[in-house]
Design a protein that fits this description.
mainly alpha
């Protein structure tokens, strides 16, 4: 059986030595609101009564925020077409 989203999220947290506050700040980079209690529910063991599965959207938002956290925001895109040329007919 492969890794679940919860397993992946836990491994990323451990690998980067993130605390709950760090993870919340990463989610804020992509305008995704998360509370400490939501994080605690995701990091619980599967047999715990208050365990919550980490959904795809939750993990995707964390990964997008992690990219911004590690690399910085993407620079604005520029038009590739030169502005001084006139369109041909």
């Amino acid at each position: 059986m492969g890794l679940t989203n919860n397993d992946t999220f836990k491994k990323l947290r451990v690998a980067h030595k993130f605390r709950d506050d760090d993870i919340i700040k990463i989610f804020e980079l992509v305008d995704f609101k998360v509370t400490k209690s939501e994080l605690n529910a995701i990091f619980r063991k599967e047999d715990h009564p208050k365990y919550v599965e980490c959904g795809d959207q939750f993990l995707r938002n964390f990964l997008n925020g992690l990219i911004i956290h590690l690399r910085g925001p993407m620079p604005p895109k520029q038009d590739k077409a030169p502005k001084d040329k006139k369109p041909t007919k």
